Amino acid sequence: MQSHKLLITGGAGFIGSHVVRLFLTKYPNYSIYNLDALTYAGNLENLKDVEHMPNYTFIKGDIKDAAFIQELFQKEQFDGVIHLAAESHVDRSIANPMEFVLTNVIGTVVLLNAARAIWNNNFDGKRFYHVSTDEVYGSLGEEGFFTEETAYDPRSPYSASKASSDHFVRAYHHTFYLPVVLSNCSNNYGSHQFPEKLIPLCIHNIKHNKALTIYGKGDNVRDWLWVNDHARAIDVIYHSGKIGETYNIGGFNEWKNIDLVKTLCKLMDEKLNRQPGTSEQLITYVKDRAGHDMRYAIDATKIKRELGWEPSLQFEEGLSKTIDWYLNNDEWLNHVTGGTYKNYYVSQYEKR
Ligand code: NAD
Ligand code: DAU
């Protein structure tokens, strides 16, 4: 592809930073603009290794700010958008649903309006890619998988806000012909994930001998995917996905939370030279998450069949690499777990 101006929203977050890095290095002829409000979850340290690249521009800004976004799109005339910016943590959505409506729903519509205005029905080579989650499909029992045809049944304020944003994206395609593509992905893990999510939280707490808080009985199931594999899928879908279509992305890798945490404990004991069984003693069962979805599992056959994508890494290898990254990046962890993180931690866990 010739020179291409691509806006990535939420590029300072966990998944966004992996997407920005992949696109900057793989497509040196693209101009990559990273738009991020730098909320508690956004961190420019995530991109330290690539921020000097000549094809990279960072813009601090809020997707809820319609005037600012309109002006930015008019000025830069982007060819494409990959939209990841969102409030992403289910527990925070239970504590404060409105923030999720404003960022995830209103923010997405603000971006759709701005893209529509600059492309003005000239859609050749243009694309609006909305990154979403498998949580929009609700909760599975012991059997079955989410396919692209599964009816939406969101059950947390987070998933309801993501479902709503997905509907708006599809509505702009049907009503205004906006060239959109969507994906719904399962749980990601890997480096640079904020330690409010299960895996980095447990790694951090094992290291510091703090309680590993298991919600309910720990028998909820999640389907885990290495974040770099999600970034690869986003690359393939952005370039080759069919306009108007949705692709499910997943790892075919289901784990009960308690089994996953015990595996983490075992790996951490080995890496920290602790006696086998030491870290498991930190496991503490706490009050369940309200409305806790029991099981997510993605059927990712469409993306494999149509676009040739599949996960590259076995879970144990990915977990081991992930633990090594957190153990070798103390400075990053210390920065993100200082300040307001402490208040969040106390309200979420110590008062539970
Ligand atoms: P994250 O919370 O780590 O990062 C979100 C980023 O968005 C942060 O950099 C934050 O500063 C930015 N942001 C938040 N509000 C903003 C606003 N109003 N304006 C501009 N920027 C704003 O999230 P993540 O885990 O990297 O998830 C990224 C996207 O992928 C989200 O849309 C999420 O719903 C989706 N997703 C996440 C997962 C997962 O397992 N983490 C799985 C499937 C889909
Ligand atoms: O499925 C995709 C989704 O995965 C993304 O859309 C979300 O942005 C992302 O946060 C993630 O949502 P989950 O709620 O599944 O992730 P989390 O890491 O918060 O929790 C994973 C599981 O572990 C879930 O069943 C809740 C449980 N849990 C979590 C925490 C933080 C615990 O038992 N204890 C904990 O302390």
Task: Describe the 3D structure.
Strands 3-2-1-4-5-6-10 form a 7-stranded parallel beta sheet, with helices on both faces. Strands 7-9-11 form a 3-stranded mixed beta sheet. The protein has a two-stranded parallel ribbon with strand order 8-12. Helix content is 43%, strand content 17%. The protein has 352 residues and is of the alpha/beta class. The model has no long low-confidence stretch (mean pLDDT 96). It is globular. It has a domain at 4-193 and 224-255 and 292-315: 3-Layer(aba) Sandwich (Rossmann fold). The protein contains 12 helices and 12 strands. The structure holds nicotinamide-adenine-dinucleotide and 2'deoxy-thymidine-5'-diphospho-alpha-D-glucose (DAU).
What attributes does this structure have?
352 residues; alpha/beta; 7-stranded parallel beta sheet; 43% helix; binds nicotinamide-adenine-dinucleotide; binds 2'deoxy-thymidine-5'-diphospho-alpha-D-glucose
Mean pLDDT: 96
Tell me, briefly, the overall form: globular
- What percent strand? 15-25%
If you compute it from the alpha carbons, what radius of gyration comes out, rounded to the nearest whole angstrom? Answer: 20 Å
The CATH superfamily of the domain at 4-193 and 224-255 and 292-315 turns out to be NAD(P)-binding Rossmann-like Domain
Which residue ranges are poorly predicted, with pLDDT under 50 across at least 5 consecutive positions?
Answer: none
Assign a percent range to the helix content: 40-55%
Q: What is the SS-derived class?
A: alpha/beta
Specify the biggest β-sheet. Answer: 7 strands, parallel
